Each structure stands twice: as C-alpha cells, then as structure tokens.
Amino acid sequence: MTIPVFRPSYGEEEFQAVREVMASGWVGLGPKTAEFEKRFAEYLGVRHAVALNSGTAALHLAMVAAGLGRGDEVISTPLTFVSTNHAILYVGARPVFADVEAETANIDPRSVRRRITKKTRAIVCVHYGGRPCKMDELEAIAREHDLALIEDAAHGCGGEHRGRKLGAIGRFGAFSFHAVKNLATGEGGAIVTNDDDAAARLRKLRWLGISRDTWTRGSQAQYSWYYTVEEVGFKYHMNDIPAAIGLVQLARLDEMNARRAAWAARYDEALRDLAWIQRPAVEPGTKPDWHNYVIQTDQRDALNAFLAQRGIATGVHYIPNNHYDMYKKCRGRTPVCERIWKRLLTLPLYPDLAEADFGRILAGIREFGRSKGLNG
Ligand SMILES: Cc1ncc(COP(=O)(O)O)c(C=O)c1O
User: Fold this and answer.
1) 1-369 — its CATH code?
2) Which of 5, 82, 83 to mutate to test ligand 1, by most ligand atoms within 8 A of the CB atom?
C-alpha cells in the first residue's frame, strides 16, 4: 500500500462524537459549534474564536474584518496554498509579494519592509509547514506602520512562538481544519481575535449578516422567529458535525502534535549524515506543530519519482503563487523563493505513521542516494 504524505488520526471517540450529534436531532450551527469555539479560544489564549466551514473563509473574513478593500495593498508570501492570496483578491485588494527566507521558507521580514508603500494596509504571514515565522519582527513592522498583521495559521495549529500560540499573535488568526490538517474535521476553519467588536461582526458575517443565529433564537424560552439582516454576509459557518469531531481532535491535539514532533526528530536524526539533504530549520525560541516535514534537495524531482515507484508519496508545497498567470502581474520579485521552491519536498508525516513505514521511507531515501553516489 502507498504510504501517504498526510493522514488524519481518528479513533472510536471521533466516531462516537459523530453518532451522538446525529442522534441529537441538531446537526446545524448549534451547541457543539459554540462549545468548540469556547474550547478552541481557551486553548489558544484568545478572547474569541468564530468557527467556519473552511480556512479559506477564515482568511476572507480576516480581510473583511481588517477593513481591506479596493486600492489597498497586502504584503504576502508566494509560497502558500492559493487561498491566502485569493482572500486578498476577494475584497478587491492587491497582493504584493515579499520574498521568503531560504532556511525556513517563511516570509522574510526584511523583504516585507522593502515592500511597504503608502497603500500598504496589512501583512499576511503563513507558518510554513507549522514552523513559526519571525513574529517579533513582523509585529514590530505592523506596529511602526499601523498595519493589520494577519496570521494564516492553517499549518500552525498548536505551534508556539516564544510561549504564544500561533494564530493568537496577530490581529486575526485564520485556521483550517481541512482533512489533512493537524486538527482535522474534514472541512472546517476558524477565525480568532482579541477584538470584541470585530468578533461580534464576524459572527454575523459568517451567517449571511443575520443578527441572531437559529440556535440562539431556538434556545430561548420561546422560539423567536425574528431577526434582522445588517450587512451582506456569507454562508461560512461551521455546523455541529465537524464541531463534534473538532472537540475530540482538540482534546487530542497536543498528544498528536507530540507524536508528530517525535517523528520529525527521528527524521532529523536519520537524515543527519546525508549532505545532499537539507533538513527543515526552526526559529530559535519556537515550537513547531510539525504540520509537515519539508526537506530541501537539488534532487527533488528525481527523489519524488524514485519514492513514488516504491509506493511512497511525497508532496511539493507549493508552486509559488506568482507563477500563476493571474498573479504574475503582482508587484514584488522573489528570487529566494524561485531558488528554493525547486528544492522543496514534503516527506510523509502524521501521528499514526507506522514504524515499518518510517523504515521503508528511510530505506528508499538511502537507496536513492546510493544509486546516485550521493551518500558519501
Ligand atoms: C497555508 C494554507 N492556507 C489556507 C488554506 C485553506 O484552508 P481550507 O482548505 O480549509 O479552505 C490551506 C489549506 O488548505 C493552507 O494550507
């Protein structure tokens, strides 16, 4: 059987949680979603979490809540899933690409500084692979220039930067609970913030701009049919099925992330003597959540093909977004990104990776190195 790059970790508790919510008669936006929001906010140490149906929705709402629109520039990274940059376009603003750091593939604060103009309103950073960005520098830039700092924490669920949880540092944090993420509900997302007014607005925006959701109205002594619509919102809310899965996954998150970290340490140790492989670098003072383990090598494509033949899947995260025609005209040259993206290869990493499969992956990498005379 092929060893996948990602695999969610589910047990009896998740199955039971889904059964319970289906039997309860309420599977829409309801009590499980509210409980998930409360627990997730507590876990991160933020005042508010608003649960959504995707990370893309979270990014879009972050742009809306930050007040971004036509004529505004948002400094972003090209090395991300395209949602990050599409969200900027959704509100009519313009992505401006900053370059990335060669070692971490995260946005480079020095490049961010060089991209600032009178039109810059926000910075969006992605914790690539779950390894934290240089948040001190990014926060300082945002403060100096009065910019909204938005964290795309899709990869960063449970990771920390100097004791603060990723996603809880910027003005808004956007999370994805998509099938391959560290906390996986199939589809799902959340936006988190410490801003009370923004959170109140986000609750309406995720539900078409309606003033009070069905659960709130239904849970009062008498069902209240009345509501008003205050602005154009979206159909972005989470429902109680992913929320129920999310509650179990959240309770298991630290333990699952610890298992990811243990596999990452095993990879580090096992690949140490292979000079043709550059292991992923970690910022001092940070704790990655090891969403994925990305090596760099000049042999990227050949290694990918070699491992695929042996039933081992690897991934490329990502094709730089400024390679897509629709993003080509965006400002910002990114030479470091151009150099390193061709070298990036994501190895299989997930909590339930089997010891025998890990052995197969390492054997495959070593065999490839030997066949090319690279192992030294
Ligand atoms: C960096 C990044 N941002 C945003 C997203 C979008 O999340 P979703 O698929 O939940 O919309 C993803 C993953 O899918 C991602 O990897």
Assistant:
1) 3.40.640.10
2) 83
